[in-house]
Amino acid sequence: AVATDDIKCGTYLAYEEPAISFLWSEQLLTHCTYCFTPVTSLIPCFTCCLVVFCSPDCRTKAWSSFHQYECKAMEAMTSMYQNIFVAYRAISQKPLRYFLDNQSKFTKYDHHRAAGCYDYEYESD
After folding, report:
1. Which of 2, 50, 81, 84 could form a disulfide with 74 if both were Cys (CB 3.0 to 4.6 A apart)?
2. In this model, does residue 81 exceed pLDDT 70?
3. Quick check: 72 and 92 in contact, CB under 8 A?
4. pTM for the full model?
């Protein structure tokens, strides 16, 4: 597409809600796990000691949305397996109904981007 008018610096051309959002492990104790705001007064999780929140409201929202599922697995997900954390968060942020309702979209757009390196042959037992 080509713009037909001048576009001023700072003009939003599009906005899209992220499908997934999370903090890198080095930011888990310096930023709110729910809204990502830098935290000066820490509000801890009631169960784990690996995340903080900026307010009791953010703690409640995180718990009802995703943290109740992640809480017991945070230590493993923030270790050498951090790449698993993104997939886990993607699943835990949406209810099962979302995945069932959108199953055809996931199937339609499930293209591997690594030129066939996922064509494994598995041994059967």
Report:
1. 50
2. no
3. no
4. 0.63
CA pair distance 21, 18, nearest whole angstrom: 7
The predicted structure's pLDDT at residue 78: 66
Report the Cα 66 to chain-centroid distance in Å.
Answer: 9
CB distance 52 to 33 below 8 Å: yes
| pLDDT per residue as tens digits for the range 95-108 | 888 888 988 887 77
Neighbouring C-beta atoms of residue 55, cutoff 10 Å: 15
Which positions ≥6 away from 58 have C-beta within 8 Å?
A: 32, 33, 34, 35, 43
Structure tokens at 53: 């929140």
**CA dist., res. 93 & res. 37, Å (int):** 19
What is the 3 state secondary structure string of 11-74? CCCCCCCCCCCCCCHHHCCCEECCCCCECCCCEECCCCCCCEECCHHHHHHHHHHHHHHHHHHH
The 10s digit of each residue's pLDDT in 36-63 is 999 999 999 999 888 999 999 999 999 9
Q: Tell me the two tokens of residue 116.
A: 């066939």
